[in-house]
Specification:
Blueprint: H1 8-20, H2 23-30, H3 34-48, E1 53-55, E2 60-62, H4 64-90, E3 97-104, H5 108-122, E4 126-133, H6 135-143, E5 149-153, E6 161-176, E7 199-200, H7 205-214, E8 223-224, H8 227-235, E9 241-244, E10 258-262, E11 269-277, H9 283-295, E12 302-303, E13 310-311
Parallel strand pairs: 3-4, 3-5, 7-8
Antiparallel strand pairs: 1-2, 5-11, 6-9, 6-10, 6-11, 6-12, 6-13
Length: 312
């Protein structure tokens, strides 16, 4: 076959089916009818002489050949987007079009509601697609083109990425109201290393940061899958934990079961950054997006300097 047998639309449909695991949901995501999408996928399979998907009434699975083709399709689609972005940058256009913005799970639900209105006002032509995941999955998505930019907690592997620190978010202690740590003078992170320390599951950067801040062992305490579950465990009296400042309730716990306390001036925290591929031609626009996030840093955080952007 030759290049005339390929279409970017077909590659986009194949990638969507791979992501969704379902032809109907992939069609909705691509804003086409399911028959149209299915026909284009079949055309691509015929052109390639390969079966990309194992189809059944209940599920759609990638074949071994399909995994290879989808992986390369993402590269081709990312380069096509880069071509369009180069044209836009060449015309001096501001950040516009579709932008896939991801955030770590312990940040997105708390930061996005604070910034979405001013973000849409400042970038009216920007079509945002938001997602949440763990750091390792986000970095992988950035590298293969599924994600354009991401809000993460440092450090992250920087090879091939531009990293723009935004603000430092302090940690707070959340503990049962009757616990000894619920009262007293200035609080130090080293005071809370112990068997009652509650952690997130392995693979979450906040878990590692909590362990590092408290000087605790990685096997200490019980585990939870989300910050909301951690808060419920604290209220149930199962132990205490560290919460990022944005996840701390604005008002005292109405049940009276949980207390939150800030640390002393040298207390633990994390640096939030915006990262994107260093090869992305929208670098100037993404740097302006980082400046937007600094300008809208949440109260109680310390804003980083804009000259701290690094590339690797």
């Amino acid at each position: 076959m030759n290049l005339a047998g390929l279409s970017l639309r077909g590659l986009e449909y194949v990638a969507a089916v791979a992501d969704e695991g379902h032809f109907g949901r992939a069609a909705e995501r691509c804003n086409v009818s399911q028959p149209t999408l299915s026909v284009q996928v079949r055309k691509l399979e015929t052109a390639l002489g390969l079966t990309l998907f194992e189809r059944s009434n209940r599920r759609v699975l990638l074949t071994e050949a399909g995994q290879v083709i989808v992986r390369q399709s993402r590269v081709v689609l990312a380069e096509a987007q880069r071509l369009l972005a180069l044209a836009s940058e060449g015309r001096g256009a501001p950040l516009t079009g579709r932008l896939v913005l991801a955030a770590i799970q312990t940040l997105g639900p708390y930061l996005f509601p604070l910034v979405l209105r001013p973000l849409r006002e400042q970038y009216p032509l920007l079509m945002l697609s938001l997602s949440e995941s763990r750091t390792t999955e986000i970095i992988e998505g950035l590298r293969d083109g599924r994600i354009d930019a991401a809000l993460v907690s440092l450090p992250v592997p920087q090879h091939g990425l531009s990293v723009a620190p935004l603000f430092v978010e302090p940690f707070w202690l959340a503990c049962p109201a009757e616990h000894a740590l619920a009262r007293g003078g200035a609080l130090s992170a080293t005071e809370i290393a112990g068997p009652d320390l509650l952690l997130l599951d392995e693979g979450n950067c906040l878990r590692d940061q909590t362990i590092a801040a408290c000087g605790a062992g990685s096997s200490v305490g019980r585990h939870a899958t989300s910050l909301e579950t951690l808060r419920s465990m604290v209220a149930a009296g199962a132990g205490y934990t560290l919460l990022p400042a944005l996840a701390v309730p604005a008002h005292p716990d109405p049940s009276g079961l949980m207390v939150t306390r800030s640390f002393d001036v040298d207390g633990p925290g994390r640096t939030i950054a915006l990262v994107w591929r260093a090869s992305d031609p929208r670098a100037a626009g993404l740097a302006s997006l980082a400046a937007f996030f600094r300008a809208h840093a949440p109260p109680g955080t310390a804003v980083c300097r804009d000259e701290d952007v690094t590339e690797a």
